[in-house]
Amino acid sequence: MRLRYTTRAVAQIDTALGYVAARSPQGARSLRVRIETVTELLQGHPLAGRETSNPLVRRIVVTPYPYLIDYRLTASEVIILRFRHAARAPVN
Questions:
Q1: Structural domains of the chain in order of their starting residue, each with its CATH number
Q2: Whether 71 contacts 54, CB under 8 Å
Q3: Which among 13, 27, 36, 53 is least buried, having the fewest CB atoms inside 10 angstroms?
């Protein structure tokens, strides 16, 4: 499956990585690698995330980090919709 990020998701990931990098460059590198690993998992196993209250959106945790990735599936791609810290309320 093809992987695609919305502009919003890219901005949210960049913001989170920037925040972490200001405190720990190594932590930001580790988080980036983990995000890549999780999104690669979704390409091969798109149902790995759990269902949300919106039937079109699934969510996966970027374990061991407290971040969530919301995504949607089409017949040919995984679309990363949002990226946020688990303690933050979702923004629509």
A1: 2-85 (3.30.2310.20)
A2: no
A3: 53
In degrees and rounded to multiples of 5, residue 48 shows phi and psi of -65, -30
Q: Under a CB-based contact definition with an 8 Å cutoff, are residues 89 and 76 in contact?
A: no
- pLDDT values of the chain reduced to their tens digit, one per residue, 92 residues: 999 999 999 999 999 999 999 999 999 999 999 999 999 999 999 999 999 999 999 999 999 999 999 999 999 999 999 999 999 877 66
Contact by Cβ (8 Å): 81, 72: yes
Instruction: Give helix then strand counts, H and E, for the chain.
Output: 2, 5
Spatial CA neighbour of 10 closest among 91, 88, 81: 81
Q: Count the neighbouring beta carbons within 10 Å of the beta carbon of residue 89.
A: 7
Q: Residue 89's pLDDT is what?
A: 77
| Tokens standing for residue 4 | 């695609």
Q: Are 80 and 5 in contact (CB under 8 A)?
A: yes
